[in-house]
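job 3f2a | input accepted
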Amino acid sequence: LKFMPANRAVLSSSKAAAAIASKWLGRDRLRVAGAMSAIEDTPAALDSFIDDVNTGYEKVHRDFEEQFWGTKMGLKGGEFSVEKLNETKGKMEAFLSEEPRLEETCRWLKRDIANEEQTRTLKIFE
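job 3f2a | predicted structure (126 res):
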């Protein structure tokens, strides 16, 4: 193995770099959120978890939707392509299948903190 400084690391493509960075940054954020929620077992901490998940999903879903409709409608200009559509779909599916998010969701469901609306939302996350 050859170790290189972080600023000189090379990946085979920028798409791979973005996918790896997105995946690990998301997991690290979830680990921190999980650690915080273990300390803060409060309705406010649960609201924060739900808001974080919703915000993250909104972004990846919006990116996918824009590519889907732009590609389907044949919009030009380089912003829309089948490659970008597949990339955004992959990011959305990766977001939905992140194991740390499911684990955190299950931990919240086991606690006796969630109100009816929060419980419904958590069950959607499952």
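job 3f2a | The helical segments are 14-39, 43-72, 82-96, 99-110, 116-125.
job 3f2a | closed
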